[in-house]
Amino acid sequence: MTGADKAGNLSRRGFLHVTALAGGGMLLGARFPLNGARGAAAATADAEATLNAFIRLTPDGTATIMAQNPEIGQGVKTMLPMLIAEELDIPWRQVRVEQADFDATKYRGQMAGGSMATPMHYESMRRVGAAARAMLVAAAAKEWKTRPEKCTAGAGVVRFRNKSLSYGELASAAAEVEPPNPRTVPLKDPKDFQIIGQAIPGVDNPKIVTGKPLFGIDVSVPGMKYAVFEKCRVHGGKVRSANLDAVKASPGVTDAFVVEPTGSAAPSPSIFQVGLPNGIAIVGDSWWLVNEARSKLEVTWDEGPTASQSTAAFDRQAEELSKQAPEQDLGNDGDAAGALASAAKTLEAAYRYPFLAHAPLEPQNTTAHFHDGELEMWAPIQTPQFARGDLAKALGIPEDGITIHLTRMGGGFGRRLYWDYMLEAALIARQAEVPVKLVWTREDDTRFDYFRPGGYHFLQGGLDDSGNLVAWRDHFVSFGEGPRFAPSAEMARNEFPQAFVPNFALQASKMPLGIPTGALRAPTSNAISFVVQSFIDELAAEAGKDPLQFRLDLLDAAAPGTRTSFDAGRMKAVLELVRDKSGWGKVDLPEGTGQGVAFHFSHRGYFAEVVQAAVSREGELGVEKIWIAGDVGRQLVNPSNAVNQVQGAALDGLGQALDQEITFEGGRTNESNFHNFKLLRIDQAPPVEVHFVISDNQPTGLGEPALPPVPPALCNAIFSVTGKRIRSLPISRHDLSWA
Asked: Whole-model pTM?
């Protein structure tokens, strides 16, 4: 199967659908030409010359390259300009990077999510640079009265025979050249790359380490007031009454009011749907003062139907549904029921994983100014196009009356795919009639997240006399209202092990939910990998086989002609690599130490991982090391960032597995801050050794695919020491003392 075919099948995550709605970035991330911008910039030789939507040149040869996508820590603010600079053929030391505002006219696919930046823009950003290089060459050829093909460009200089002109000297003239068709400009042979493939530090690193203003929470504008927003602790509850006069009398408070949207309540046509806010805004001279005034609020709430929902009730309902006929068939091959009935050995297991919060270190925030019927915003947002559509509806103004300045995000992991905090800030600013900076507390951020939904899997597996897996049945119980990233038939075809078991059934039942849920880093994969790779380990033990070899044997068992985007050969390669690098089965481990293995195909990336963990007889757990092997195609654009993304994803997954869960009682979130929703601590973080298989496939993204194998690999390592299976997360809820 070709790389293009594989890309075409990846809509199961929903991200291709989203990017198609966003303009897709199919081949051009920029719309050529931008004549107005070029003509204005090229008026004088001293002016900065604009070659296209992405590139400006100054006479000293400095190129300012626009980073179009929002930066959330995934490295695109460095990586995408690297692609442009490579084909522009300018030394990186002469490049300055600037974050672009949201602009649907100039840019396409201007979002962050789904590890899509590399597959969407790898070629299109290179063509942006190549087209600009061609304009510079054409300007030089005109100066020398020769043909462009007789000139060469490199290292920021165009040459012809013994003549040369720097890009800075050519900038003004090049800006007047009619841009070529970027689809036809020649691209470099990868063997000639000077920037792509080099380890380049993040362009924001100096500001980050020195604490310079950079993030949404750092924004300050003239005349700005500060705001907090109080919502009902029961999700979906609404204000009945409040002591607003008493709050307004608090020091530093300039206003307090109920926010009730007056625009359209219709959500945008995307999987990232956001409800309209209802609550009480307090506005004043400092954030500290308005947050202090918040403690004086006395509110009567209409809590609504979600007040009857709780984690305990979900657990009971899931158990009841598991005993009933499933509501949906999502994937069927062969006769799973019949094969289970005739199998030499069968195994049953019930797995559960919790709701999770995103817990970015920078809480949600937005600065908004509503004036003259228009809205200007400074916001950390992953999906500005969808946000702008909903903002326009909520305010009753046209979309082109909204300006969104994209700030760097202090984490997000999918949380900032949703723009509820932007809606709050916009509605508060409209009523306050001054610029307003809304900042959530950590408690707001934890309680009012768009949570990764929990789920329940009731599994059966069957083995033949030789210990081969011949039957698999999974009754998945999850939540069914709205865009919940619930399973689909398309997803099932691409999830291991459907194509590799002759008799397979994936079935589902759904429960109602009033609590908002959404995508968390590696959506769907971050949960289903724990279930699938843990149960495969159980089946390997039941078969009496080495769990890594059992997986390799499974990867050889694909049914011919099965339609799936899962490439067994690529997964085998990374599994064999991580086996060799970790010394699997060849290292004498001390008593109380074990290794576990898992793999997963997620967001176009193939990753296999081995976790080594030690468990004392009393049950004290320590993770000693993680080995990771991944395949994301033929080119790592920025190797240092690639390793950083993989290591970060692994530690993120480790933190989720060890001690994270969100629970509910009476429709309220029980957890509120890092004391009871615990992030991974530095003394818990093991070394993470990363290796890549460079395969002949299109380059793909790295923000997400390394996360899913970590939790099951850790749980499988714990079993190898203690003999205890972890069938529910987090691990901290289990007694790990040796059996």
From this structure: 0.92
